[in-house]
């Protein structure tokens, strides 16, 4: 699948998360477990305005925050803490397909940045669309939006390379 990478200005998004450390092969287990834990707290605390699941990759060492989007800051409860995605310039693409192929979207963004002279700032995140039953039969339709924060000095969109599908 080709990935249409583009630059956007994203607002800060409030999150409720748990912090984990996981190697790439563990993510398919760690992320769903963490999302379940966070949703349990969100429900038990009657937190309004919860949205989609999110995984924020803090560094290249396996530190990750996993949780859910919120409309307002979360004070925390147990190991579930408030966090946020940063506001700023991002390189982003939408991945349609199984989670096991998300690495393709990440590779497309990194290549696009390298080709266009953009510098990732070290923070990346995935926002998982709400699960739909039909995805059980057709995982090619699963939607995940992938974001890479860019250094503020990155080139403006007009100077970004066009990327064929």
Automatic annotation (TrEMBL):
Transmembrane segments: none
Database matches in Pfam families: GyrI-like (PF06445)
Name by which UniProt lists this protein: Bacterial transcription activator, effector binding domain
Top-level lineage group: Bacteria
Origin species: Aquisphaera giovannonii
Annotated ranges, domain AraC effector-binding: 3-151
């Amino acid at each position: 699948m080709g990935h249409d990478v583009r630059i956007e200005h994203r607002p800060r998004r409030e999150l409720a998360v748990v912090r984990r450390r996981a190697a790439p092969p563990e993510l398919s287990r760690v992320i769903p477990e963490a999302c379940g834990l966070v949703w349990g707290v969100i429900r038990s605390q009657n937190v309004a305005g919860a949205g989609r699941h999110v995984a924020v990759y803090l560094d290249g060492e396996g530190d990750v925050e996993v949780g859910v989007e919120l409309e307002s800051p979360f004070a925390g409860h147990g190991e579930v803490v408030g966090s946020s995605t940063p506001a700023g310039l991002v390189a982003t693409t939408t991945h349609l397909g199984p989670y096991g192929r998300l690495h393709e979207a990440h590779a497309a963004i990194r290549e696009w940045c390298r080709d266009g002279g953009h510098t990732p700032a070290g923070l990346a995140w995935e926002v998982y669309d709400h699960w739909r039953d039909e995805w059980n039969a057709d995982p090619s339709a699963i939607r995940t939006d992938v974001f890479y924060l860019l250094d503020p000095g990155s080139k403006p969109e007009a100077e970004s390379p066009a990327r064929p599908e």
